Amino acid sequence: MPMKKEEDFGTNPDGSKNYDYCRFCFQEGRFTDEGITMEEKIDKLVKIAVSQLGMTEEQAKTMARTRIPKLKRWQGEQRGF
Fold first, then answer.
1. Which helix (DSSP H) or strand (DSSP E) does residue 63 occupy?
2. In 3D, which of 41, 47, 49 has the Cα closest to residue 21?
3. Rounded to an integer, what distance in angstroms lies between the CA atom of residue 69 and that of residue 74?
4. I need a labelling partner for 20 at 20 to 30 A (CA). Which of 9, 14, 53, 72 fits?
5. DSSP 3-state assignment of 27?
6. What does each C-alpha distance from 32 to 27, 44, 73 come to in angstroms?
7. 31 with 25: CB under 8 angstroms?
8. In a structure prediction context, what are the per-residue pLDDT tens digits for the chain, which is 81 residues long?
9. Triad 59, 39, 58: Cα angle to 5°
10. The pTM of the whole model exceeds 0.70
11. What is the DSSP letter of 12?
């Protein structure tokens, strides 16, 4: 998710902005999809990018597989793809 405007960013428990994650993934200091694996997250984001952003599936997969593993959330998880 491109995060360019203040309203694009997630929020911390105190309501302040969290500049690491978008508003769809992180609200009030918690991930909106806790318990999801990185591969499940990639699949979910690919579907969103294709249906809502008009990307091809290949473009969306490339973007997700390049960016998602670099997020702090996934730094400790094995990358099995």
1. helix 57-67
2. 41
3. 6
4. 53
5. strand
6. 7, 13, 12
7. yes
8. 778 999 999 999 999 999 999 998 999 999 999 999 999 999 999 999 999 889 999 999 999 999 999 989 998 764 443
9. 15
10. yes
11. -
